[in-house]
Write a structure and sequence with these properties.
Strand content: 15-25%
Strand order of the largest sheet: 9-10-11-12-14-13
Low-confidence stretches: none
Radius of gyration: 23 Å
Structural class: alpha/beta
Length: about 425
């Protein structure tokens, strides 16, 4: 263990890591639990925190409980703080514990450290044994969530060495839009963005790992073929309404499966941060819960990476949803879509305590004339029904404001919205 602690610090020094645009609260009162999709870069996020904070060797302890040198130690691994103190002559102030689920009895271990209120503690977990969301749940009352998805567009630009600023030239704007198109098609998973693996290979492997480790192994799924078909159905239906009952009817023609099983498998996808249902807004919680959801995946690259074709407007909508979902997971507001009996629809309703505060449409338009009247009329109708005056339409390249039927609508390009 002594060699491991020292060698790990040297390994981290040699690594190239990229800044994540994510706020972190350093506090001795709680453990920070880093949660998010598999392969979104949780381990490297910890490395980045260490480097960004310019921590000295004697200030921090990093242990990945997935590493072979640590896994074989059993409960002896809990002596890591004591061993660090023996090596450096002082206790570490910052504790980074990666893949904590591999440490037997980790809950009381972390609890005891938090109770001492003298460490800054960061914890991650992503294996099939215990998902990161479950780690956060088990530390209820003792942890703060750090939501980590694949690279945002702002992070994507930083990786490409593009300078983020307030004002851009025409040439820079053209370059941003070119990067945005690449980002929507390929997504933000670090291994893809950093070109460490072919994107089609990555997404095929990613889907396989989610299927076998996060679903089949984790939940002891008895019907892998149903889970596989459901995964592909969700990706193919991204940014569209997703009737689980309809999928069930299609599946039962090929497989012996119950309606309850399909619903259960669908719920697992949210638990492992693979995809998320978006409910239709209603002032009645029950009606909203029972509505047919739209469904979105955790990264736009999954769609083209798995060979599905989709219009760019749906990729834009998915990118917007992912950013809104991060805010929802951070308890900033709740996100819904709106649709009436005449099939008029608004992509996103942002609400607090069941009160709509903002309505957002997303459309692939480069000038005002390309924005369909249906998009605007749906926004106006929803504004009237929901009593919401903050109206926005996210476009590809049109920016401005307009007063329509005495209501102000703001138009903002997607790239600018993503960089806010």
């Amino acid at each position: 263990m002594r060699d491991y602690i020292v060698d790990k610090k040297e390994d981290i020094k040699r690594l190239d890591v990229f800044d994540r645009v994510i706020d972190v609260r350093f506090t001795e009162e709680f453990a920070n639990t880093v949660i998010g999709p598999r392969r979104a870069g949780k381990t490297f996020f910890l490395y980045n925190l260490i480097k960004r904070s310019k921590l000295k060797d004697d200030e921090f302890l990093f242990v990945n409980f997935e590493d072979d040198e640590v896994k074989g130690l059993g409960n002896e691994a809990k002596r890591c703080i004591q061993i660090h103190t023996e090596i450096y002559g002082r206790e570490p102030k910052y504790l980074f514990f990666d893949e904590i689920q591999n440490l037997e009895g980790w809950q009381p271990f972390i609890y005891s450290l938090v109770e001492k209120k003298k460490y800054f503690i960061f914890v991650t977990g992503s294996s099939s044994k215990l998902l990161s969301r479950e780690i956060s749940t088990q530390l209820r009352g003792r942890s703060l969530n750090v939501i980590l998805f694949p690279f945002s567009f702002k992070e994507f630009l930083l990786v490409k060495n593009f300078e983020i600023k307030k004002v851009y030239s025409s040439t820079e704007k053209a370059k941003i839009k070119n990067y945005l198109n690449e980002y929507l098609r390929s997504g933000g998973f670090p291994q893809v963005v950093l070109k460490k693996i072919d994107e089609k290979t990555f997404f095929r492997e990613y889907l396989s790992v989610v299927l076998y480790r996060d679903l089949i192994e984790r939940y002891k799924i008895a019907n892998p073929d149903v889970a596989r078909l459901l995964l592909y159905s969700v990706v193919q239906s991204c940014a569209k309404e997703f009737s689980i009952n309809k999928v069930y009817k299609q599946l039962k023609e090929k497989e012996e499966v119950s309606n309850k099983t399909v619903y259960q498998y669908f719920s697992y996808l949210s638990e492992v941060f693979f995809s998320f249902p978006l409910r239709k807004f209603s002032f009645s919680y029950k009606k909203s819960l029972l509505s047919v959801p739209k469904v979105y995946v955790n990264d736009t690259g999954l769609i083209s990476g798995l060979g599905f074709r989709t219009e760019i407007g749906k990729l834009m909508e998915t990118a917007v949803f992912i950013e809104l979902k991060k805010h929802e997971l951070n308890n900033v507001y709740d996100v819904f879509y709106w649709k009436d009996y005449q099939q008029r629809e608004v992509d996103f309703v942002l609400a607090r305590k069941s009160k709509p505060e903002r309505l957002i449409q997303v459309t692939y338009a480069s000038n005002k004339d390309e924005i369909e009247k249906r998009e605007i009329s749906s926004l106006l109708k929803a504004s009237e029904e929901l009593g919401c005056k903050d109206l926005s339409i996210i476009t590809w390249d049109y920016e401005g404001e307009a007063m329509i039927e005495k209501k102000k609508i703001k138009f903002v390009p997607l790239w600018k919205w993503l960089l806010c």
